Amino acid sequence: MDTMTRPVAPRSENPQSLTVERQLTVGGLLAIGVSFGFARYGYGLFLPEIRREFELTVSTVGLIGSATYAGYLLALAIVVVSATRLGPRLLIGVGGASAVVGMGLVAFAPGPGLLAAGLVLAGTSPAWAWAPYSDAVDLVVAPARRERVLAVIPAGTAVGTAVVGPLALLADGAWRSAWFAMAVVAAGVAVYNARVLPRRGRTASNRREPSRPGGLGWFVQRAARPLYVTALSYGVLGAFYWYFATEALTRASLSAATTTAAFWTVMGVAGIAGVFAGALLSRLGLRTSSRLLFAALATAVALLGIAPGSFVASAASAVLYGPAFMAVSSLLAVWSYQVFPERPTSGLSATLLCLGVGTVIGPAALGTVAQYTDLRTAFLTAASIALATLFVKAPRRAVSRVSSRTCVPA
Three-state SS for 325? Predict the structure, then answer.
């Protein structure tokens, strides 16, 4: 065959290129698992032991919790304004270092001061780490596969949660050893990401030249508003459920530490199904997927409001909530990428700021509902918020229909 007419394989199908994409996907899954599953959500699982050792009052626990969210929002704000200048490798590296140092401080804290500092620092890790993967993916992944890879990476939260539950059982009260182990794992993940993340100036041939849209108008454009409302609702639901699910089990006499850890583990293991979020978004489109996922969240939350003392209802809640919660993370990542293609990290960071505001509002507002009524009413109120989100119109556009073998790590 003449060389001028011989078909040339697309650059994106080069085996070396696919290897780089898979390495990046693995790095993203691990980094999100460490930053969310360990550094952010691990606090709630080990809180009873921490409270006993440091003799923390309820108000002190609340102040520390608020400080961790404040640190998270501050880090997100920095990422929004600095992502284009600093690049994804540096920001993700900061996230890894925050997780390692923060969890190390928690493990060796001699008193409440360093404990709080470690928790706040570790709590900033997701803010530094997640959004910059949008730019990292944009740099090295072929256009047809970018949205699918972005949909896979957030499932790392489920992986981290599935690990930290059994770890709490194995630790059997030795919470410092557990936090040290998590810090060691975080260090290994940080080193791996430093090796696989693209360096400044290393761009794929399919990388578009970045534009520099400026001003508040770019962030609050009409197409972004439904995205922000969905992120806000998701933040409210997520923070409330993570905080109060174990409280609901406790009040229903399912308070054994093994039961709580098992609940988290089931939720995390079920949530690993979130790696297939890309296939769901591709088949159903963003709008139908959003409605299906929020209906699942509404059901999961309502189950703990209706029958928290039922083993079947609690297990069903965990099994439903895990994959739906993880998949909505993927939905937001892909939806944000479609709204803000020029600056993916800045756009996703703005979306996560709205999510972060929801995490601040959710426990406070719904906790007040629980105080003046009861916890069951608060859960049913949260479920109604999830149902209301069904009326927010996501784009109909689906994720690029490509083989999952090209984006799911092998």
Answer: helix
Its CATH architecture, for the domain 15-201+220-406, is Up-down Bundle (1.20)
The closest alpha carbon to 89, from 28, 152, 162, 18, belongs to 28
pLDDT tens column, 350-393: 898 899 889 888 888 888 888 888 889 999 999 999 999 999 98
pLDDT by residue (tens digit) across 126-144?
Answer: 999 888 888 888 888 888 8
Each residue's pLDDT tens digit, 318-338: 999 999 998 998 899 899 988
Task: Look up residue 341 and give its two tokens.
Answer: 């293609």
For residues 24 and 133, give the distance between their C-alpha atoms in angstroms, rounded to a whole number.
9
CA torsion sign for 225, 227, 232, 236 is: positive
Tokens of 118: 């470690």
The pTM of this model reads 0.77
